[in-house]
Amino acid sequence: MYYKGWYHLFYQYNPKGAVWGNIVWAHSVSRDLINWVALKPAIEPSIRADKYGCWSGSATMMADGTPVIMYTGVNRPDVNYQVQNVALPRNGSDPLLREWVKPGHNPVIVPEGGINATQFRDPTTAWRGADGHWRLLVGSLAGQSRGVAYVYRSRDFRRWTRAAQPLHSAPTGMWECPDFYPVTADGRREGVDTSSAVVDAAAAARVKYVLKNSLDLRRYDYYTVGTYDRKAERYVPDDPAGDEHHLRYDYGNFYASKTFYDPAKRRRILWGWANESDTAADDVAKGWAGIQAIPRKVWLDPSGKQLLQWPIEEVERLRGKWPVILKDRVVKPGEHVEVTGLQTAQADVEVSFEVGSLEAAERLDPAMAYDAQRLCSARGADARGGVGPFGLWVLASAGLEEKTAVFFRVFRPAARGGGAGKPVVLMCTDPTKSSRNPNMYQPTFAGFVDTDITNGKISLRSLIDRSVVESFGAGGKACILSRVYPSLAIGKNARLYVFNNGKAEIKVSQLTAWEMKKPVMMNGA
């Protein structure tokens, strides 16, 4: 959240080690979302309602500008019995909000009426309706497999009443970390405050809503875009199959995400967590585990069908003074070109590709028309194709023993009723050769990019940060974060290449690459 000139990030943290357990709410603050100061934890187990765990939750800005936190507590030693608690700042005049208090009336929401008490967590940011009531969601599981977002109402954040029907549900398994927020539907990139779109009828007519859930079983986040009926307190996805064919913020290692509205720049910002892909022993040795992705600005695509995401503009302050630029470079089939003149272990790379002809594109197998992951795994970066794979090898060693591939591959659409259809674009990250270290988890990640490539043009941006590769395809229509742990391509030994393993030649219209500086990280303030 943003409060009195400071951004506040609260996150699940184990102060006793680089393994899961002893979870508290750590607290860091920043002026610019890039350089952070770590404060002491904001919320720790201290009352009966959270004695055995302070789990996830959300912050809400009240009408008078005072923040309030709702979070999940575990209150029994023998079972993860989950209740919802409230915390308030001890001193609202402190812009750093260094102390939080828990009122004696906690817990304020308990699992009644047949709710599964071990699957009942992660309250959302609340929104205020025209009737003066605040509403929030709590994620849950109904029966064996139905994910549910329950609606609770309150005037005072103390007495909460559950609505007769959930906001929405679907047979996807448990819904963790739900998020529900408005987005402008008129093509603008401005964010919308969670409450304003509900109170202001004129604003309500110009917005769509996003419902995002984290799937406990599949360990990824998916979302739908739809309509919020404020009277019925129900949400309806625009795509009836949206809960089946999942749109995802990120097709890689990205989970338990959360957005907030930034009033300072009138934008909505997305945070996401990426866990480690090395071993627990490695985590203990390095003393930390888990990262937050670079914050992303999110807004609705003009088509209204999906969100667009882009790294916040502040990350560009970490760019070195002079970029390396490659222009109008043709990359022939089977060729790779090294990008030299900068260190690329920490870099920001933007590239625009042009494909001369799509005639060599292979026909998409109908069996894989909805399974980008399977398609990428079956035909990775080294498998010769028609149009692609083409893209970047990042964190590559001099002899290419190690490399992480971020690439596109273009297919003719699967034959359906004789129609031509537009080409299908697959975006992949393939880290299967990213490290020579043993015992690494190196899954390929992939998603289809809803873009028209009939003109042969597509763009890619990759943020490279030693063990993290975050990539944004076609202006943020598809995003993939991957964790990699090279043993050779480290520091000055990391290299960057453009490659083309397709039959059609491609052209790099322009590639611009910057070395990235480290942000300032200060602890114990």
Protein model, in words:
- This protein is mainly β and 525 residues long.
- It folds into 2 domains: 2-314, Glycosyl hydrolase domain, family 43 (Tachylectin-2, Chain A, 5 Propeller); 319-515, Exo-inulinase, domain 1 (Jelly Rolls, Sandwich).
- Helices cover 4% and strands 44% of the residues.
- The protein contains 4 helices and 37 strands.
- Strands 25, 27, 28, 29, 30, 31 and 35 form a 7-stranded mixed β-sheet that branches. Strands 9, 10, 11, 12, 13 and 14 form a 6-stranded antiparallel β-sheet that branches.
- A hairpin with a 4-residue loop joins strand 33 (468-473) and strand 34.
Walk me through the topology.
Layout: E1 2-3, E2 6-13, E3 24-30, E4 36-43, E5 54-61, E6 67-74, E7 82-89, E8 100-101, E9 120-121, E10 127-128, E11 134-142, E12 146-154, E13 161-162, E14 168-170, E15 175-184, H1 196-199, H2 201-204, E16 207-215, E17 220-229, E18 234-237, E19 255-262, E20 267-274, H3 280-286, E21 291-292, E22 296-300, E23 307-311, E24 324-331, E25 336-338, E26 346-355, E27 362-363, H4 372-378, E28 387-396, E29 404-412, E30 424-430, E31 445-449, E32 457-465, E33 468-473, E34 478-483, E35 495-500, E36 506-515, E37 521-522
Parallel strand pairs: 4-37, 27-29
Antiparallel strand pairs: 1-2, 2-3, 3-4, 5-6, 6-7, 7-8, 9-11, 10-11, 11-12, 12-13, 12-14, 15-16, 16-17, 17-18, 19-20, 20-21, 20-22, 22-23, 24-36, 25-35, 26-32, 26-36, 28-29, 28-35, 29-30, 30-31, 32-33, 33-34
